[in-house]
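Q: What structure does this chain adopt?
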Amino acid sequence: MKNLFLAGAVSVLLMSCNKDEKIQTASLEQQKLDYQARQIDIEKQKLAIEKEKINFEKQKDSLNKIEAEKEAERKAEANRVANRRSTPRRSSSSSSGSVASNSSSSSSSSSAGTTATKKKGWSSAAKGTVIGTVGGAAAGAIISKKNPGLGAVIGGVAGGATGYTIGRAEDRKSGRVQK
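A:
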């Protein structure tokens, strides 16, 4: 009976050792699989980060391209404005001269600060024309007692021409127009 008991004890011990070994082996295999699954997840995250980097670089490049196009457009506008200013203008009457200087000043103010001499508002020639025309018309109407309408027209034309001449000289002094 001792032998039987001893054989039973040895078999129980062997079985328990084999069971623990199988559990350890299964546990080790499971750990390997878990590790590989984590590695795969990490690789997926790395790929996602790389995709985001590429998308960011594409957006950055497109924004830089748009900025370069805008800068080229500003330079072209500045060159156009500079070419307009350097071209001498001839006007057939005083009113068309004031219109030309008004359009020149409005186009230079739309160039968004790319030129060093950015001018805003009315030129002195335009201001002089308007003030001279109004003042001359008023003076002509007052002076001409018999026909105030004709006096206002003649005074307005004379005052406008004089005002334009004086304003244009002011513009040349300030550098708004070239000689």
